[in-house]
Write a structure and sequence with these properties.
The protein is mostly helical and 288 residues long. It is built from eleven helices and no strands. It is globular. The chain starts with a helix and ends in a 14-residue tail after the last helix. The relative contact order is 0.13.
Length: 288
């Protein structure tokens, strides 16, 4: 049984003295996302696609008017979807190597072999390393997609049927069905996280050597037997801390929270894979 409070304390202790390096990695990830967003906006303006303003997102009338205006140009929707998909692809290609490198950096700290920021950025060093970092997230992403389709098919179908019933004038029956769909969606979301937590160890196992994504995923499923529920509880226990950091630090919340969460996950993975034997020699941990 993993001691969750001990994992959090270990993560904080391991992050002390290395926080600024971890924060820089989180800042680089945010800058990549921001740069892609600005690039998308520029491309939208270049191809003549007008986006709805943020203040109009709360107005049903404004949204309806925007949709009608968008549909009036048969190519506008195509342009909108192409630029959006292109932005997602660029973000994926640029951010995933950094994400994998950051995971490796945190895991190296946990194993007692701290590295410089360059260790995380080395994933951009060659086409092979870029491809390798992309492949583990593509392969595990296919598993996430599979379970997402299986888990959310029922509530999505209930929502569609509810909308059809409502359009036929049966508001009462539609309301009951939509209520059931919301409850089902929440239950399926918990089930989805529980099932996909079996993939949690795959990137950490994959980062340790010349091992295939298929084998890393298979080994992750084996090592996570009986651990998915505990990991789910641990993930939920981090939410209050993340919310507090976001409210207190506002814009800098992500840069502060991301290193802590990454270190918590790396520490949790180490607890499962090695029993927590990878510790800094200069730090003593005590259990209350």
């Amino acid at each position: 049984m993993i001691n969750r409070s001990l994992v959090r304390r270990k993560a904080i202790m391991r992050l002390m003295g290395r926080f600024w390096a971890a924060a820089v990695l989180a800042l680089i990830a945010e800058l990549i996302s921001l740069a892609v967003t600005f690039l998308q906006s520029a491309v939208y303006n270049a191809v003549g696609v007008k986006l709805i303003s943020a203040e109009n997102l709360l107005s049903t009338e404004a949204i309806d008017a925007y949709i009608k205006e968008l549909l009036s140009d048969r190519w506008a929707v195509v342009k909108l979807m192409c630029v959006f998909a292109g932005g997602l692809l660029v973000t994926f290609l640029l951010s995933v190597p950094l994400r994998f490198g950051t995971l490796k950096w945190h895991y190296a700290v946990v194993k007692g072999t701290p590295q410089t920021i360059g260790y995380a950025l080395n994933e951009y060093g060659s086409p092979k390393s870029v491809g390798r970092s992309l492949w583990i997230y593509i392969y595990t992403g296919l598993h996430y997609l599979k379970w997402g389709l299986l888990c959310f098919a029922a509530p999505l179908g209930m929502s569609v049927v509810g909308s059809m019933i409502y359009s036929d004038g049966h508001a009462g029956a539609a309301g009951v069905l939509m209520s059931f769909s919301v409850v089902a969606a929440v239950a399926c979301a918990v089930l989805f996280v529980y099932v996909t937590n079996r993939l949690f160890l795959a990137p950490y196992i994959y980062s340790e050597g010349d091992i295939s994504a298929v084998r890393a995923t298979r080994e992750s499923k084996e090592r996570m037997r009986g651990q998915s529920g505990g990991l789910l509880v641990f993930q939920l226990s981090l939410i209050p801390l993340m919310l507090i950091a976001y409210f207190v630090c506002y814009g800098a919340g992500t840069i502060i929270v991301a290193p802590f969460v990454s270190m918590c996950y790396a520490t949790y993975a180490d607890e499962i894979l090695t029993g927590g034997s990878s510790e800094d020699e200069n730090i003593e941990y005590t259990v209350e």
